[in-house]
Amino acid sequence: MRTTELKIGTEKKEAVLVAGGPGFKVYSASGFDGWVLVLGRKVVPVEEQSAEFKTVSKYVNLKYQPLAEQASIKKSFDLLLDKFKAPRLPDVEPPI
């Protein structure tokens, strides 16, 4: 089991690596209800009540999903990663 310490918000938590691939890792952190995605240096907590949680859960358990659904699960997960990787522009008010 690979463990590491991740900073989620302002707290450091012990985390176990559960899945990974090129450019991302998925961790389960102690004391946190959800998944933690690490994209390069960016740490993205995925709360249990969010829609993204279900997508990440299906990807983590991909080998237990029906073969017919695995390609669509991978595609949904890739789209989710692209969403989190995209730079967020600051909100700018239009000039007066």
Quickly list its features.
2 helices, 5-stranded antiparallel β-sheet, 5 strands, 96 residues, alpha+beta
Structural account:
The chain has helices at 51-60, 67-85; strands at 3-8, 11-21, 24-29, 34-39, 42-47. It has 96 residues and is α+β, with helices and mostly antiparallel strands. It has a 5-stranded antiparallel beta sheet, covered by helices on one side. The model has no long low-confidence stretch (mean pLDDT 88).
What layout of secondary structure does this protein have?
Elements (H helix, E strand, L loop, with lengths): L2 E6 L2 E11 L2 E6 L4 E6 L2 E6 L3 H10 L6 H19 L11
Antiparallel strand pairs: 1-2, 2-3, 3-4, 4-5
Q: Which strand-content bin applies to the residues?
A: 35-45%
Separate helix tally = 2
Structural class: alpha+beta
Helical content stands at 25-40%
Order of helices and strands: EEEEEHH
Spans of at least 5 consecutive residues whose pLDDT stays below 50 are: none
N-end to C-end Cα span? 56 Å
> Would you report the number of β strands?
5
**If you compute it from the alpha carbons, what radius of gyration comes out, rounded to the nearest whole angstrom?**
15 Å
Q: Walk across the major sheet and give the strand order.
A: 1-2-3-4-5
Major beta-sheet overview: 5 strands, antiparallel
Overall pLDDT metric: 88
